[in-house]
Amino acid sequence: MNAGARSGPADPGVDITPADTLAEIERFLAVHPDDPAAPLLSRCAEALHSSHMRYEALFDAVPDPVSILSESGIVLDLNKAGITAYQRPREAIVGQPIELLNPDLPRDHLDPVWETLKRGETYVIEVTNMRGDGSRFPVEVHSAGFQLDGKPCIVAVARDLSGRWQAESRYRLLMESIDKGVVLFDHDRRIVSANPAAHRILGVAGNESLGDLLQPDDWVIVDQHGRHLPREQWPMSRAFAEGQIIASTTMGLYHRPKGRMTWISVTSVPVFSTGRDQPDHAFALFSDITELKRDSAIFDRAQSLAHIGGWEWNRSQQRLYLTEESLRILGQPDAPQTMTQLLACLRGNDQARLEAALIDAVARQSGFELELQGQRGDGHSFWVRMIGEVESGDLASTRIAGTLQDITERKQTEETLRIQARTDPLTGIMNRDAALSDLAARLSNPTHAKVAVLYIDLDRFKTINDVLGHNAGDELLIEATQRISRAVGTEGLIARFGGDEFLVVCDTRDLADQPERLAQAITEAFIPPFRFGKDEFSVTASIGIARAPQDGTRPQQLIQNADMAMYDCKRRTRNGWQAFSADLARAQQDRLQIESQLRRAADHEEFRLVYQPQVDLRHGRVVAAEALIRWQNHQLGELRPDLFISHAESTGDIVRIGRWVMHEACRQVREWMDQGLGVVRVAINVSYRQFVGEDLAEQVREALAEFDLPGSALELEFTERVLIEDAPSTLQTFADLRDMGVVLTIDDFGEGYSALNYLRRLPIHGLKLSQLFVEGVPGNRSDVAVCEAVCGIARSLGLGLVAEGVESEAQRQFLLKLGVPVGQGFLFAPGLPPDEFARRLEELQLPQLTP
């Protein structure tokens, strides 16, 4: 192909063109006509000229624009069709970059072209070309590669698509104007395109898409006989499977969410792409034939499958027509013949609603849609969705027709879900949301606004749940619910408000003392112990009471105040009740103030420690001390430990306070040692939060090291709650502390659930007998029994024993006889300042006690 034969700039990548060769031969023959090689060169020149003429004839005969491009995209040649199409002279194009004709091409547009051509394939692309006057036209360009004088070049054929675009525009206009629905599906049944008639026939609303509407689970598809049509028998499925046109198939489409039945006649046409033996698309062309099917038996059958029937009321003749499916839905022994008889099937309120809708439809020439409840002949209730409208063109509104859909199952499901949403799944009583909703409804009604709320919390539930497991905890909650229900009876509503918290709402309009009577009945219901297998456990209830309107007019406010009263009850006695009061509210404000000041107490150096001697009960010698914290606040004054320690526990400040106590106690022991008083063992209380929240062993090791103390200088007292922490880390912490020489003691032993198995496993040194039991000896038989049991446990396990709260000589004598070696309490000394405690140590013993 002699592409360079025409005049024009030579491409820098081509050294000598065939045209150059022909010109050189002709110049040589003109100068040397007698040269021996002249005849041969003359024949070569003729052959080159002939070849060029054939190339030029073929090149210009192609009806589409053809360009020859160099490797870098320079136009080397252009045929006549190209000159005509681009409306430019040939010399204005040849030698110019291809971007002259395609100004929208990116800088690296040749990269994918050469990548395709090097694989031996043809590169095809649709682009927009530009004529000399600046106008654009679409083209489809096919590019192929070839060698020109050893250099890679491109031949590009551009086909004008303007005619095809015009055809497509006419096609789109046709699709948008015809009254038949046309939908194009791909092989995965996804919608590619759809015309307006398809949207109208299938009932697509303005805010919907056809894809969203055509969800398979929302539709019931039947054949022309009203039978369910499997997916594989749908005309479109058959067109894909068989590769043939499936013509004029009648189908019924029922859309469940909208309750709409549509009949169509559909033809499905498979579409094959070039080179494919299986269709990859299919057209569905369909017409709406619903009106033709409305009065047929097939229509009734299809409605039966969808549980939807038809009805028509002739007002002028006062006659009511119901299809068989409508009669089945209503379930009346005698078919209603008039609208009055149909109304008699409905509830009173719904009778009035339907009558009003019929009157409005007649007056406005409009339609209606109602959900109505009635009763069948067998006594069972039914729910229907009734749709009606005045027939088009009936100016007198003599005929109203529509559908009757059975929605009983849906309504029953909704009611079941509504009940479940308001019910606690474990206990079967109302849940938190239901209680709040009912209480809000009562408070919003002036005639029912005098109510009271009882907030109930189970004491010691968490201990049982932790020790015995969640199954036992669930059983306890179920039995507790039954006890509360029996105590309340029909005098209040009961709800489970949280894990082990319950709510009772009662009316106070007639009986002012109703809340207190119910609270007393509930506490009495918890007196019998709970039994799990062979074991019995005492679980009590603490109750707070708040009344509307004096204690609150909103649900959350009322419940919050009852909750506040409950916590006050739990803090004081447990297994009792407490009514909310203004004093309690002030106390709550005081607690908030305490918590606020507590966070800054350590930084302001408001804490100090006093030391209560632990005394040899027989000889009166001081053997150790317990460090007791005191707080002197600049605003609140001196605060008792029992007043602020519980707040510190709940807020988490106890961890920080615990670190300060340990550091200060170790510092004081060091100071006493420097005074020559020897190593004084000091006991400090370790909070459960401090135990589980920090590396306690490391903290103790650092404190001892800081003041160069032996481990025996420190005694750590834990509550029984630590015993139930059945975790490897718990055992490791106790082992690490014991290895340091630290004395480990369980404080207030016997008050909680004494997990003896864990007591046996943990490497502890001793127990502290709670003041709660010591204060009742020797006169209280129950306290005596507990003290004897604890002493027996300590002896059997080889543990030391310290009695707290020794306040009388009778108590000391009793404890001595019981074998308790050490005690502390006001009989010997209260908590002493460090210098006073040092003075006692120097005296070596307290005043002589009677043996």
TrEMBL record:
Record domain PAS: where: 167-211
Domain EAL: 591-845
GGDEF domain segment(s): 449-582
InterPro entries: Biofilm_reg_signaling, EAL_dom, EAL_sf, GGDEF_dom, Nucleotide_cyclase, PAC, PAS, PAS-assoc_C
Superkingdom assignment: Bacteria
Span of the signal peptide: none
Domain PAC: 368-419
A Pfam cross-reference name: PAS_4
Name of the featured protein: PAS domain S-box protein
